[in-house]
Write a structure and sequence with these properties.
Length: about 300
């Protein structure tokens, strides 16, 4: 089949890892990799892989709007708020990997079909992609009073955009948990660990519930994990649902594929794999060839 052409805005760790993954896709091809500095590590990597590059930022797409049908924005929340009006005017489908909070929140295991008709989908955060599938199961099977999500990632896997977007990270993750779990009282925490050797991404979901239905959790959590593993192979439950100090607890670990950073950078893998899953769904449905509103 003819591949859907995509462009990547952002040449940092996330954008570069995303590029390498897209090069393996049978549905997508990267027609343009866009940053701001031609001599950055990401741009050098893209050039070495034979991918066309540009240092013109969003202007590259304005100058050549026919270069792609889908745009991945892997910059920052602030930058995406500037990029979106331009991309909307150009009638582009946009997959936002920043915690900007602009587009429809997308967790492929939960609402990928719904998002096919949305012109701007937001991949929330790495912690959101890891925790929200579990939080949704808890919310759908339990009487929940409170959910708390704690994600720990290796400091080396957190680039500049991640660090400047910490407030947006918390806000976006909490918003996603509320939406998909139905619980209004939630909290999200992100810890950057300086441990050596670097640790794998781990996310723990705590929940305060009335009369825990453990049988339902033991049945549904593995099913949900399997749905996520379909597009994130390194996603695994390392602490099955249990009750500890009157709280439900479950924990997931995400091991990366080691495409750009080493395998400990599961935080990049889970959001990038989720974004690619969404883009490939566009391609399989023929949506990448349509106008910005999918009609």
């Amino acid at each position: 089949m003819k591949k859907t052409r995509v462009a990547i805005l952002g040449s940092g760790n996330i954008g570069t890892d995303l590029l390498i993954k897209i090069l393996r896709s049978q549905y997508l091809e990267c027609s343009l990799f866009i940053g701001r500095h031609l001599n950055s590590p990401g741009m050098n990597k893209a050039g070495s892989l034979g991918v066309r590059i540009s240092d013109l930022s969003i202007e590259a797409i304005e100058r050549e709007p026919d270069c792609c049908q889908v745009v991945f924005d892997a910059t920052s929340a602030l930058d995406h708020r500037k990029h979106w009006p331009v991309l909307k005017k150009l009638n582009k489908r946009v997959i936002d990997l920043t915690p900007s909070g602009i587009g429809e929140m997308c967790v492929p295991a939960l609402n990928i079909e719904h998002c096919l008709d949305i012109e701007n989908v937001n991949m929330i955060t790495c912690g959101g992609q890891a925790s929200i599938p579990l939080a949704s199961v808890i919310g759908n099977t339990q009487d929940v009073e409170y959910i708390e999500v704690v994600s720990t990632i290796a400091s080396r896997s957190a680039g500049p955009a991640t660090r400047i977007n910490l407030d947006e990270y918390v806000e976006s993750t909490e918003k996603g948990i509320r939406k998909f779990s139905g619980c209004s009282n939630v909290k999200a925490i992100l810890t950057l660990s300086p441990a050596q050797p670097p640790i794998d991404m781990q996310t723990t979901v705590f929940a305060k519930v009335t009369r825990p239905d453990m049988q339902a959790l033991k049945e549904e959590i593995p099913k949900m994990a399997g749905r996520v593993q379909h597009y994130v192979p390194g996603y695994s439950i390392i602490v099955p649902p249990m009750v500890e100090s009157d709280r439900l607890v479950t924990m997931v670990r995400v091991r990366g594929l080691g495409d750009y950073l080493p395998k400990y950078a599961g935080n990049m893998d889970i959001i990038n794999c989720a974004a690619i899953a969404m883009a490939e769904e566009y391609a399989k449905a023929g949506e990448g060839e349509r106008g910005g509103d999918g009609r």
